[in-house]
Amino acid sequence: MSRSECYAQRVRARPYGPREVTVDGVVAWFHGPFAVLTLAEGETSRTVRADLDTPSLGADLLHLFTAAEKGEIACLPQPERTVGEQVIGDDVPVVVRRLAVRPGGEGVSLILGTADLVVDVMLSMRDAGRLAAEIRRWVGAE
Asked: Structure pTM?
């Protein structure tokens, strides 16, 4: 089976098509087995992709965003299992070193860290709940 056939099979296995959720500083895009999160803080942004077919990654993301919804501290146990976006033409892979949430102010802080960049986005509890609900839906589609 070719890579494209394998990808198409995995996408068709999910019961819904592309879906996008935009909240302050975060755009989450869900399609097939993939969740793509872009965090933007001012002029700085970073995108990370998670694959539901990676063992326990969906459950780990669900735990992270459920903690965010409750205003609790949590981090992805193995953030390197996600894929960081890299600049086109750049051969150096972007390794995600940290994906975490912590309470702060009137909401939670969602933190995405790589070797050269940390993006810290503040989410309201309502927005954290919206993201958690979509992650729940996405993970539940396994």
From this structure: 0.83
